[in-house]
Amino acid sequence: MVAHHEAIKALIYKTAWMLDEKYKNGRFSALEVTKYLSMVKYLAPHHALDVFRRVMYWHGAYGYTQECPLEMGLRGVMSYCIGAEGAANIQKIVIGRETLGRDWTRTR
Asked: What is the SS3 assignment for the chain?
């Protein structure tokens, strides 16, 4: 879990740096930055969901009762995986489109 956390954190720092470079020096296009933003928005909530799942297992049945704060945290993280900030499938489409090009992602 720590290795995934550090990898995602490095991706977040790279994306922030790219955004700074875009506005300061015009080094990156908006679409290049968008691809990295979508990677972060896809990976971070899914990693958090995995962490919550594992921690809830450690707590046993208490972990998913409403008395346990983990239950509310899990619902919050699920909202990012399912709805807020764009669903995971939308982030995959953006990543694919910016990696492969718009011609590869058009429906035929």
From this structure: CHHHHHHHHHHHHHHHHHHHHHHHHCCCCHHHHHHHHHHHHHHHHHHHHHHHHHHHHHHHHHHHCCCCHHHHHHHHHHHHHHCCCCCHHHHHHHHHHHHHCHHHHCCC
Residue 21 lies in a domain: no
What global pTM score does this model have?
0.79
- pLDDT tens sequence across 32-83: 999 999 999 999 999 999 999 899 889 988 887 888 888 888 888 888 888 7
Per the structure, the count of domains in the chain is 1
Which residue range(s) make up the domain with 75? Answer: 2-9+32-102
